[in-house]
Amino acid sequence: EMRIEFVGPEIVVALVQHRQLLAGGTHPAIPAELCESAGKGAVEKRINTKLTDEARKNQCGFKSGTDTLEPGCDKKLKNLATVLIDAKKQLDQAGVKSYKFEVSGHTDSTGDAAKNKALSEKRAEVIVKELVARGVPRSEILAVGRGSEQRLVKPDDTEAKKAKNRRYEIQVRL
Question: How many other β-carbons are positioned within 10 Å of the β-carbon of residue 103?
Fold first, then answer.
């Protein structure tokens, strides 16, 4: 049995991506703990890519300056809940025991930074409550307010640019 003494994580990730690991996520020439770590990292990356895409496609608007959802979000929230439940199944199948889904709320740069941060957290919490109502376990999801700290568009000096920054994102944290 050949054994490799040092293997960089990128080699293990490549093996994972090319499905070269054996059942159970091992490879005869690579230490088991490295295979397990890289396998989880690949699952996390794949799930987060899907969550990012789906959150962008399923954005719900909020009434200006409030945490009140605009009408017409039910189908979008149902889609998001389905994606999270599917992600949970993938994590469970990969043997990942400890994880949280994080819903982060974001605002544009208009107004007071502290108020924006508080508003973004309230909006994220609204999304969390809606996802929990649609079957996502409350113990596996949390809300975080980011305010205007992580804008997609800088500067956000037009209404269209501001609208892109007012959003929520969903990621899994292992």
Answer: 27
- E strands, 12-132, in order: 100-106
Task: Name the token pair of 173.
Answer: 């944290």
Q: How many CB atoms lie within 10 A of CB 69?
A: 18
pLDDT tens for 15-70 read 444 444 444 454 555 555 555 555 677 888 999 999 999 999 999 988 878 899 98
Burial 46-66 (b: 16+ CB within 10 A, else e): ebbebbeebbeebbbebeeee
Q: Tell me the pTM.
A: 0.78
CA dihedral in degrees (130, 133, 136, 138; nearest 10)?
Answer: 90
Q: 144 - beta bridge partners?
A: 104
164 within 8 A of 50, measured Cβ to Cβ? no
Give phi and psi for 69, each to the nearest 5: -65, 140
- For 79-112, the pLDDT digits (tens) are 999 999 999 999 998 888 899 999 999 999 999 9
The token pair that represents 58 in the structure block: 């399923």
